[in-house]
Amino acid sequence: MITYEYPLNERIRTLLRLEDLFGRSGHFISQPGPQDHHVALLTLFEIMEVASRADLKSDLLQELERQKQVLRAFRNNPDISEDALSQVLGDMEQASTALFGMTGRIGQYLRENDWLMSIKQRTGIPGGACQFDLPSYHYWLNRPSQERGRQLADWTSPLYPLRDGSAIILRILRESGKPAQFVAPQGTYQQMLGGKTAQMLRVRLDSALGCVPEMSANKYVLNIRFLTQGAEDPRPRTTEGDIGFELTFCNL
What we know:
The protein contains 9 helices and 8 strands. By secondary structure, it is α+β, with helices and mostly antiparallel strands. The protein folds into 2 domains: 8-172, YacF-like (Orthogonal Bundle); 177-250, YacF-like domains (YacF-like, Sandwich). A 4-stranded antiparallel sheet has the order 1-4-8-2. Strands 3, 5, 6 and 7 form a 4-stranded antiparallel sheet that branches. The two termini are 25 Å apart. The mean pLDDT is 90.
């Protein structure tokens, strides 16, 4: 089964982008090769750009506080595990404290590093990070792997409060919905929303079906087309068969 997520507002788009970027960053920092660390550094620059949205930190803090108030209402509920609830609330408190500790403009310490910014500028040009363009960067890529990895972690870790806060919010969002089974006749599905609100849609379907969902939604209607792509004709087209899938409306 493959899960496809479709955010319905800009805030959730930003959180999903950060989740993807931090996941990529962690993977490539842990690898030993210079090309891996090159990708890790490029990913750090992407994180810096996505995280520079002015209200991101305050949005995360407000949502964490709102969710803490919701969860505290479940105290002494016999159907809720007190240990699990305390663990989640503790994680939220820790994430909020770390976010409060982020002072100034997000990523400003990176912008003040002239060497890193020179690399960022050159990597915006196709092939601009060749050794003859950036000999000092070429030298760095040939330093011991552990030394490079340690520096990458030092540059990335001050941004981890954003990663951890986003992860908590996305986990709550994903767990908020109840999956339901549907069928798209001839690859097309439409649902009138009738006042139903959601911040993200999740579609799960069998990878063996060989198609991908193309989703669009507004406050009135949801449309999903399932597209296939042939080996000889690479242009996507709506599949001709009926497609069974799982749909979840997620809302904080």
